[in-house]
Every structure is written in C-alpha cells, then in structure tokens.
Amino acid sequence: MNVKARIQYLKDKINQANYEYYTLDNSSISDFEFDFLLQELLELETKYPELSTMDSPTKRVGGVASEKFQKIVHDEQMLSLGNVFSAQECLDFDQKIKKEVSNYTYVAELKIDGLSVSLKYDSGLLIRAATRGDGLIGEDITDNVRTIRSVPLRIPIEAPVEFRGEIYMSKASFEALNKEKIALKEEPFRNPRNAASGSIRQLDSTLVSKRKLDVYIYYLMDRKNYQTHMQSLAACKEFGFHVNERTRHCQTIHEVIDFINEISGIRSSLPYEIDGIVIKVNEYHTYDEIGYTSKFPKWAVAYKFPAEEVKTSIEGITFQIGRTGVVTPVAELKPVMISGSLVSRATLHNEDFCVELDIRIGDQVIVRKAGEVIPEVVKVVLEDRLPTLAPFSMIEFCPKCQSHLVRKDSEADYYCLNPLCEGKIIEGLIHFASRDAYDIDGMGEKVVIDLVNDGFIHSIVDIFHLKNHYEDLIQKEGYGEKSVQRLLEAIEKSKQNNFDRLLFAIGIRHVGQKASKNIAEAFGSMDAIMQATYEQLLEIKDVGGAIATSIIQYMKEESKIQLIESLKVLGLKMQYDTQKWQKETYFTGKSVVITGTLSRYSRNEAEALVEKFGGVAGSSVSKKTSIVVAGESAGTKLQKARSLGVAVIDEEEFHRIVTEIMNEI
Ligand code: IVH
To answer: Cβ(438)–Cβ(505) under 8 Å?
Structure first.
C-alpha cells in the first residue's frame, strides 16, 4: 500500500470510530487500537507534511498552549433572546407576531444550558470557531473546538457559511469531571455550564480534548438557500452536525405550549441541562418583516422554566459565621433534589426573616431554587405543624469563638466582633482564594480549612509565605510533592491578577465583584482608594452609601493598612491595568459617521464598535466630523464629507483598523 492510500485508510478508520463513538455511542475498536491508529497517522503526516490536510482527525488532538485567545469581530452580531415566563406570555408573543405576518408556524427547541459558539467554514473547511463574547467581539477558540469530535472538520459546501450553536457538557461527563477534580483536591465546577465554558477556555487544547464536550447546532446563517428553519436544521444534520433530536415543528402557539409542558415533565431525566425552550418562527421570509430590537430578534423568544419548588422538612437550624463576622441562621433540610442538584441547606438570612416566617425545627417547608440561585425557604406549611414545636430563637454567642454577638442598630444582622475569631478567618481566606476573587487554583474550601487547622495560614499574607513551608507541606497526608508544587505555582501566578480582583478578594463588606471593578477602574490604584473621600466614592457607578461607608471604615483600620502594605511588598498588583482599547485607539476622541451599506457589519454594529473603542458615532456630517466610513452606495453624506474635506475610509479599511485594535489587546 502506498503512503497516500495508507493515510486515507487511517483517516477513514478513525473517522468511522469517532462517528460510532460519539453518534452511536458504541465503537467497534478499542481505545487502545484507536490511539494506535492515530499515532501512526500522526507519524506519517509529520514525515510527509504535504499529505497532511486540514480535515485530518489528527487536527483534533490539540496543539501547544497559546498565551491567550485572539479577539475576533463577528461577521454578524450574535444576538441573545428576550424572555417569557408563562403560557400567557407565550400567547402574547404570538399576538405580536400575528400583527406583523400571517401564515407562519413555529419551531420549538430545547434551550441548552451551555455557551454559544460561532463556527465558520470556507471551501468546506472549518476555518474559525469563536465565543459569543459581548455579541460583537468574541474570542478565537478554533483549536479547542476542533477537539470536539461531533464538529465536522469538512462539510460539503464550498461557499463561506457560518453555523451557530451551543457547546455543552452532559450531566454524566460533568459528574465524572468533578469526581476527578475532587480527587485532585481541586475545586469542582458548580454546574455543567461552568464546566463547559471553563473547559473551552483552557489555553492548552490537548487538555480540552480530554473534556467531553459536545455541540448542538441551532442556526445555519444562510437564509438564501433555505426557506425555513426546519429545512436548514435538516441540512445541518446532513452535514454531520448534532442537531437536538427533540426539536419540534409546531403549527400553532398552542402546540408550542404543549411541547413546553411535555418537556417540563421530563426535564430532570434529560442527559444534559436545559433552562428553557426557544420558540422561533419557522418561515425565513417573515424575519425581516417581524424585525429586531437592538439586542433580540423579534421572531424568536426564550421561555424560561419557573424556579422549581419542593416540599421538605427542617431537621435543624444551625448558625454560620461569615467572613465579615455576620452570623446567619441556616436551615438543615431533609435532603431533596431540586433543579438537578441535591439540596440539604438553605439560608434563613437573619433573625427577622425567621420570626416573620415563624420557622421551627420539625416544620414542613417549601424550598425553591432557580438556576444557580442559592436555595431558599419560601414558606412554612402551617397545616402540617405539630403543636409541640418550639419557636425560633437567635443565639447569643458566636458558634466558633463564643464571644458575645452584637446586633447593630438599624441592622437585622448579629455580628461576632472578635478579630481573632477562627470562623471569620477561615471564611475570609476561603473567599480570598475563590474563583471569582483571587482565583488560586487548587485552594478550595477544604484545602483552606486544612491549612488553617494545621497552623500554616492565619491571614492572607501567610498564603504568599506558604512556599517557605514546602518541606512540611509535602509531609501532610494527601498532599504529595506534585500537588504542593501545583498549589505554590498557582499562588505565585495569582500575583499577576489585575487589581480589581484583589480589591474584591480582601473582603470589604458590601463590596462585590462589580463594585470592585468599577472602583478599581475609576481610582486606578489602592493608594488612591485609601485616600478617597465618601463623596468621591459615591460618584462611582453602582456605589451607594453602604459600600462607601464600609470602604472608608476598612481603610482606616490599622490591621487592614498593615495587610495592604504587606501584600504590596509581596508583589501583588496594586494598580488597575485598563484594557488597551480603553486607553487609546485609532477611534479615541474621534467623531465617526457611518454611511451607505456595509457588508460585514450592520450600521448598529459598526457604530457600537466605534463607541467601544473610544469614538463617538454621529449621524450627520459636519466640519467637526473626524472620519466618514463609506459603505456601498453611500450618497449625500459622502458628498458632504468630500466637500468639507473630512477624511473618508471604506469598509475594508474600517475592518482592517478594527481587527488591528483587537489584535493588540
Ligand atoms: S437561538 C438569534 N436556540 O440561549 C438566535 N439559542 O438567550 C439566538 N441557546 O445566546 C439564539 N439553546 O447561547 C437559540 N436552541 C437554541 C438555544 C439557544 C441555547 C442559548 C444561546 C443564546 C442564548 C439566548
């Protein structure tokens, strides 16, 4: 057999095995044989690079880690959907459609809970995969998406074409991945969506190829060659994409509502998570007539499932201390499954909440959980109450250090004021290291508790001195050399975090992630924040009296000033690095008028890009206009620009500039 034929043979065999494995869930060859064939193909392609093609299954193996993802501009904005929450709102949606068009039908699809992706093909080859980003600008994840085996590397269409769909992880793969993470003492993912988006954002695509991700396609961006959405989905299936098998063509909105009820009933038994049903008009010719808002198409809407409510009983009420010293009552529930996860605890907020609900140990209660929202007790089922149950009473002493709790005037919360309370310290450190805060990989709740209990850390500063205890750490049970090294590396790496993360991580009361970002951006550095006045803080977006007071108080405390000084010396970033385009770009301070028709962008998109990059998008041309972007058949505005001597660029030039700005970031 000659080399070329052997390569073709290997490719076919591997593709067949992939298909069997992923689509039929049953492979005729073993994993070992599979790897063996893939290895041979890789070797042949390395030896004869001229025989290596873009659609070879070796391209799915993944490559070396890149430093960061390149930004891309979407050819057409990736829109999101408006929401409806009841059957009545579905009927209202239908009424609005009826006002615009007649003779239409619907397609009802599962709203898969993952992350959206755009897949571009040219000359039949997958040339680019991108995340949604902010809808206009996403990130290039082509190498990672190539590792998802149900994404065809070649399709039988020569013309450039784009598909959109949802990357997701099945419930089973999510459970398996978390088991692995827990065994490695890493923090598990909170839900399959986070697992999918965390996986696809790994820089090393060889790692991505080990995560079991899949894609359902829900949109083929070619309304010229297909008349209906159903037809285009059928085509996607033929090209080899996964299209959700439960998608249903409905003649009327009533059939859609039946579908919603049907799926609600089986939702928990589906192998993947969904958070609603997407309702789309089927006939493409109606789309332009029905139209768009600036964010959503009006020909589609997402029905969102209501928060699931379940009855269970209160087995106990415990008290939990938080990082700021607030002591919160917590309901210990008889464990129940709600929205796909086992719930055994729910916050009872504070004394007033408990008194108002009149909640008692032994009560039957209704508990609710919507999506990622923390479970909450909605009400007590008073009819079921036994006469012997004792009313709720708040504790007087800290559950950890036994100091006397204090309820401040005008607040519902009780505080432990002991600065050395171990409960507070542990919670503060868990918060510091957590993913949304300083994001120290491998330093989850359990690791923090272990390290505190064994006397390695008592404060944030100690985390950065852990490297001096390497020898002792590797002696700890369950902490091998490798995991300790990984942890220490993660700690060092975290020092590169931008300053807004630090501001959030140090745990100033009321100062959340968003406020931290706004404050860091506005003041630029820790020093400036330490000097800030109450009034200056109030000027920041989303900062109110509570946040401002809390910051001023924090920055006055001697122990906090010392903490900040020590972290400074350790090399943590105390300055906010603004993203480059917020600094200066070609468009900064320029007034830009877009005229004529652009082929890559809608008018709205082009204007949004100008504004995003610091320019001002205007609608009429005057002497003050800096640049006119002239698209196809530009008319009077172009003439005016010429007569006033205003600079004119064409779409290609505009696109080149935009792409350049993004690649600098
Ligand atoms: S259609 C213009 N269909 O939900 C069409 N979206 O809130 C816009 N999603 O960003 C999207 N399953 O990530 C559509 N069958 C489906 C979907 C779906 C999940 C996600 C998608 C989108 C978000 C919209």
So the answer is: yes
